[in-house]
Amino acid sequence: xxxxxxxxxxxxxxxxxxxxxxxxxxxxxxxxxxxxxxxxxxxxxxxxxxxxxxxxxxxxxxxxxxxxxxxxxxxxxxxxxxxxxxxxxxxxxxxxxxxxxxxxxxxxxxxxxxxxxxxxxxxxxxxxxxxxxxxxxxxxxxxxxxxxxxxxxxxxxxxxxxxxxxxxxxxxxxxxxxxxxxxxxxxxxxxxxxxxxxxxxxxxxxxxxxxxxxxxxxxxxxxxxxxxxxxxxxxxxxxxxxxxxxxxxxxxxxxxx
Length: 257
Hints:
This protein is an alpha/beta fold. It has a single domain, classed as Ribonuclease H-like superfamily/Ribonuclease H (Nucleotidyltransferase, domain 5, 2-Layer Sandwich). The protein contains eight helices and six strands; from the N terminus they run E-H-E-E-E-H-E-H-E-H-H-H-H-H. The chain has helices at residues 26-39, 89-96, 107-118, 128-134, 143-151, 159-162, 173-194, 243-256; strands at 19-23, 45-52, 64-71, 75-80, 101-104, 125-127. It has a six-stranded mixed β-sheet. The longest helix is centred in the last third of the chain and has 22 residues, at 173-194. Residues 213-240 are annotated as: Disordered. One of its GO terms (cellular component) is nucleus. Pfam families: DNA_pol_A_exo1 (PF01612).
């Protein structure tokens, strides 16, 4: 019986080997999508993530602004969805191709939002949280935690970047760094898992939403049995006299002596 627990030392990754491109027009998106598809012929897996601008407490009131895809061939594209006048068919086909896995944290939920916002059908998703649970990786299962425990890689997840305006025409360096690493590191975590479990064994986890395991409630222990109380001897009742009776008794005692 093989032990699938994730006890191997963290793997070193080279982020610098990835070429990151911000894509905001139709033709460029077409070209890079075809390159990603070509890379998938060697390794049919893409790191996947989405970003959108949260402007209210609801969290998802804006359309997906950025689509991140990274291939094992060293290409990462950040597609500015809100800047595209139309979605290239090549990109739609790539997302719909279930023979190419799209891996990340909660990719199925991102796919639902992509469909709601742009009518795109995402298939072939694989949630890293489900695989981490399958391989007995210690919790928690967020991207930052998995990057640390599986790859030994520190990720910077600052709120001011997460909640920033992803719809701006020119993304900041911090936004580009954050968005690209989400896709790249997600892919590298999957590749590390793939060394422990074969792709064919991952089929049951395809297009499955990660379920947080329920912690069973601890039953309260029964109260200890009550000890039988010892029967106490009755105390002699003290005679209580009112003032008048006390005076009469006192006078009676004086007359006797």
